[in-house]
Amino acid sequence: MGKVTKIPRPTIERLALYSRPLEAFQESGTPIISSEKIADLCGVNPAQVRKDLAYFGEFGVRGVGYDVKDLLREIKRILATDRTWRLCIVGMGNLGSALALNENFRKRGYHFVAAFDSDPAKAGMKHPCGLKIEPIGKIRDLVKTLKIEIGVITTPPGKAQRVADLLMDAGIRAILNFAPIQIRAPECCVVENVDFTLKLENLVYHLHKSS
Amino acid sequence: MGKVTKIPRPTIERLALYSRPLEAFQESGTPIISSEKIADLCGVNPAQVRKDLAYFGEFGVRGVGYDVKDLLREIKRILATDRTWRLCIVGMGNLGSALALNENFRKRGYHFVAAFDSDPAKAGMKHPCGLKIEPIGKIRDLVKTLKIEIGVITTPPGKAQRVADLLMDAGIRAILNFAPIQIRAPECCVVENVDFTLKLENLVYHLHKSS
DNA sequence: GCCTGTGAATCCATTCACAGCT
DNA sequence: AGCTGTGAATGGATTCACAGGC
Fold it and tell me: What residues in A contact B194, CB-CB < 8 Å?
């Protein structure tokens, strides 16, 4: 409390990163951890870790370190991962299907409660994950009645923007986009893009450069 | 030419980003494009676009803009996406399977030439993508004989580091990791992480903050 | 007039280095 | 002695603003 500082975006991203080893330490019963240890495991600078945490309070004890359990709880509270969230997937191709079946999401509190696909042949079918595949036209209705908070887009690139617009129309304010295009959205909606081929192009550049 | 400037990492990432709309413009036959247009479509500043490109040469014409075809060719040459690359996937669960079937990769010149899984029940099976699933033990051999250049890891987090070590042992120097852990690798190997849940945690923070 | 290429200015994030507490 | 919390210093990257060429 006190200062009203703006939190740097990278700080938020790293908080999530820190929580990974913290979870492991909590499970293994380690009670205390130092900024240096966290930094080491996450590949960042120890001062960075301390500064990131200090934005939100004084969680550590000088001369000692951080209490693993407390710190993890604080981070989860900050990130708002201490509750569950309701998501939908749009585009039940191979990727959408794989995500719906992925256990990592559920384990972290992300529950898929609806699945959509524009293919009339798919609509109505029951997906192995347990969800019935709904037509795109039902997005508006279901987002509201099922109180969906986050939309995941796994459509082909050509359809992604239209789907995003539908989701936003329905009141969605957070989108995770897997289509390799830049989604345009107003301020009020947060969009995160996951573009594998972008990452590959990065790899390939470095490979080529150092050969 | 001339100055030996160090290229900022973000510049490389954006070059790949710029190539997306350029491809669309090339297909639609638009001959010339301005830095402002590119910037707009990619959500960056026009000066940024010009500076990024200027690191590699003078591709534009003052008072006119950039020739779409030329620029795209140059970017592809810089990123080394003007050739094909040989990859393997390790971990043929839902995600690995979906990636192997994903057309986006092939279209951009990324060819999966081998698939591995540690599950003996899967080894030997033919995957719908056309590849035979090989046991982990064959990584070393096949990476060499098939001249695999990039490894994609889609195993559970517990196995990811071991798989990465195997790949690097076999001579792989670029890894795309989908497991939600931080892969440790020496300088000589480039690692890109794709962690969906990290992205979700970001979204969730922003949702929560602005509610 | 228009749009690129680029030094200069600004902004932001990271790292250092040490004071402060246990 | 040890490790956190934090102002100060550093280092990068982004943006501005304008000179340069069509």
Answer: 194, 196, 199
Beta bridge partner(s), residue B32: B67
Q: Residue ranges per domain, chain B?
A: 9-79, 85-198
pLDDT in tens, B63-106: 999 999 999 999 999 999 999 999 999 999 999 999 999 999 99
pLDDT tens digit string along A57-88? 999 999 999 999 999 999 999 999 999 999 99
Encoding tokens for residue A151? 């939309």
CATH of domain A85-198: 3.40.50.720
CA–CA dist B158, B169 (Å, integer):
19
Euclidean distance between CA atoms A10 and B100, whole angstroms:
31
Cβ of B44 under 8 Å from any chain A Cβ? no
* Structure-token pair, residue B149: 């250049």
Among the partner-chain residues A43, A79, A188, the one whose CB lies closest to the CB of B182 is A43
Decide if A204 and B81 are in contact by the 8 Å CB cutoff: yes
| Joined tokens for residue A62 | 């000088």
Residue B101 at interface with chain A, using a CB cutoff of 8 Å: yes
- CA–CA distances in Å: residue A82 to residues A192, B36, B208: 20, 42, 11
List the A116 CA – D21 C1' distance (angstroms): 53
Q: Which residues in chain B touch residue A20, judged by CB atoms under 8 angstroms apart?
A: 180-182
CATH architecture of A9-79: Orthogonal Bundle (1.10)
- What is the spatial distance between Cα B154 and Cα A140, in angstroms, rounded to a whole number? 34
Which helix (DSSP H) or strand (DSSP E) does residue A101 occupy? helix A94-101
